[in-house]
Amino acid sequence: MIETRPPRPHRVPGQIEQRRRADALALLTESSVRSYPSWIAELKRKSPASSIDRRRYAYEHIRPGEALELVRGPADQSDGHAVAYHHRGVHLGYVPRRHRWIAKALDDGLRLAAIADRVKIGGIFRRRAKFVGTRIVVLDDGR
Question: Could you give the dihedral angle defined by the CA atoms of residues 94, 128, 134 and 27, in that order, rounded to the nearest 10 degrees?
Fold first, then answer.
């Protein structure tokens, strides 16, 4: 007799992304995970590489639990501790200057992850993000 397995439930990409974001937010609530609050600074400015409105992009694409990339800026910039937030290759803004430890941690080889924690929307008709709060997660500190 041939044994058949029940068919796997079909998941659409939206459900997979929603589950991934929920898992990321659940990770932040774990007591063993070290995470620190931050936000995206200079969200209101236009992206230097393109004419993308960062606030509109954040409104359309960033949800709580969304993973963001931390990209260390060049050392010859006016701020030697610049770290940029990117999402799918789009430059969103910078880590605030008061969080210089993030640049130092990246330079020291620590593995950090940034997860969007909350997105505040500005205005009913404007359809733009007013504020994006993040959590910086220390993935590996050599302990």
Answer: -140
- The CATH number of the domain holding residue 115 is 3.30.70.2330
From first to last of its 143 residues, the chain has per-residue pLDDT tens of 555 555 555 555 677 788 877 887 777 777 778 889 999 998 887 766 677 888 889 999 999 999 999 998 765 466 778 899 999 988 899 999 899 999 999 998 888 999 999 999 886 667 888 999 999 998 865 55
Residue 123 within any structural domain of the chain: yes
0.70 exceeded by pTM: yes
- Indicate the helix (H) or strand (E) that contains 115: strand 111-122
Place of tokens 């409104």: 59
Only one residue has tokens 């936000």, namely 39
Contact 29, 99 (CB under 8 A): no
For residue 126, the enclosing domain spans 34-140
Which candidate, 124, 122, 135, places its Cα nearest to that of 55? 122
The pair of structure tokens assigned to 124 is: 């009913």
Report yes or no on 99 lying in a domain.
yes
Which amino acid is it at 29?
Answer: T
101 part of a folded domain: yes
